[in-house]
Amino acid sequence: MQIYWTKITKIIEETPEVRTYLLACPQDFTWEEGSHTHMAFEGFNAGDKPNRSLIRHMSISTLPHENAIGITTRIREQCSEFKTILKNLKVGDEVALFKTHSNVPLKREGKNVYLLSAGVGLATFRPLVLDYFKQADNVNKIHSLNIDSSKEFLFNDVFEPIPDKKFTSQFVDNRTDYYEEVKNLASDRDSIYYVVGSDEFLMENIKVLQEQGIKPEQIMLDKHERQRTEFLSLVKKV
């Protein structure tokens, strides 16, 4: 396993609780839209076993052409050991990256694409939208739906509707409006639905989509294939 140590080059306060950490791109470090990486702090591999409290699976919110690896995350006042350390890091400090992979690249099958997310889950979708703007081949249109009860919606500069590019975006701040809209979107039976958020959020969305006739192969989750299959089959049994 290759471990890349890299420095924080910039810290952006997106909202009072959400920060984006921009990291320098190490030589040979590559990724694509929809990628996640494992981010870790000094000492995580010092013992016989990795210290998992110093490691976190994080989505990358940028694309390679932006010349920075973006990690966008919510840090609340009361937070985990990992988030507490992250909150205190400064520009110039080092972090480790390893096991970078994409479970949710943009599918180019000539269909409509719907991006369903909660809160900072939108960070996973930012690169997909930018990739679509750069090259729209074999994607009919994209619609993003995000729920965030804080009403501090992220990446407004990217998630701004652009009719000419067949891109629309919607933000809601409550579950009732959100799931009503998911039902409406699911009336489009021959499309692709990406879902990013907590496990509970994934389960609820899968249930609604399947009740509306959306097939498992149309639902994309930021999970390895085995986990994705488990989620889809588990919801089906409920």
TrEMBL record:
All copies of the FAD-binding FR-type domain together span 1-107
Q: Which residues form a coiled coil?
A: none
Which InterPro entries does the annotation name? FAD-bd_FR_type, FNR_nucleotide-bd, Riboflavin_synthase-like_b-brl
Q: What's the protein name?
A: Dihydropteridine reductase
Taxonomic lineage per UniProt?
Answer: Bacteria, Bacillati, Bacillota, Bacilli, Bacillales
